[in-house]
Amino acid sequence: MRVIGGTYRSRALSTLRGVQTRPTSDRLRETLFNILTAGSPQALAGSVWVDLYAGTGAVGIEALSRGARMVHFVDSAPKAAELIRRNLLGLDIRAGFEVLESELPRALWRLQRRHVAADIVYLDPPYKSVDEYGQTLRALADSAVVWAMSLVIAEHDRRFDPGDEFSQLRRFRKTVQGDSALSFYRTGSAAKILL
User: Fold this and answer.
1) Where residue 188 falls among pLDDT bands split at 50, 70, 90?
2) Burial, 194: exposed, middle or buried (Cβ in 10 Å; 0-12, 13-18, 19+)?
């Protein structure tokens, strides 16, 4: 696994052995970031990310590589949190991130208390934990971390549909890549603003 583009392009990232984490594939990350930067390579400069169920940290690290100002990595598994720290250290990334080893409700509460307003929230629960999608998207819809122009992106199995609407969060795009898919959500009228 490697960083696809930006400052750390082609640099290797470590993964965990076994099936505890399922890293976002290089191809899917490339598709994601091609969508996000279409027509503007600097589109992510200065952005704030929340990477939920961060696993290896590959998505958030890719965002940092492409100019994100801050990435909040969230994962409740101690081994995943340690792996994220190792990957960041291996790339000599010393600032512009925090690793929250925490369950989702507490992590969102902590981010809200500090008035974090995310430009992009990426969530990648274990594909088999289908209930996590609805719970997480509902929690985000009710959270101050997601504001009017936030983009919420859910990675999921192509055969699973996480849903179209969660309170004011509405899906406006779905992209399939191999066995995986990305669902894109925005709030209310902002959902009409297409990528």
Assistant:
1) confident
2) exposed
- Write the CB contacts of 27 (distance below 8 Å, at least 6 apart in sequence): 177, 178
In the chain, where are the structural domains located?
A: 26-192
Structure tokens at 79: 């081994």
Fold of 26-192: Rossmann fold (3.40.50)
Tell me which residue of 161, 169, 167, 72 sits closest to 111, measured CA to CA: 72
Nearest by Cα to 151 from 136, 130, 167, 173: 173
- Give pLDDT tens digits for 118-162: 999 999 998 889 999 999 999 999 999 999 999 999 999 999 999
In this structure, are residues 117 and 128 in contact, taking their beta carbons and an 8 Å threshold?
Answer: no
In this predicted model, what pLDDT tens digit does every residue of 15-56 receive, in sequence order?
A: 987 545 567 888 999 999 999 998 787 899 999 999 999 999
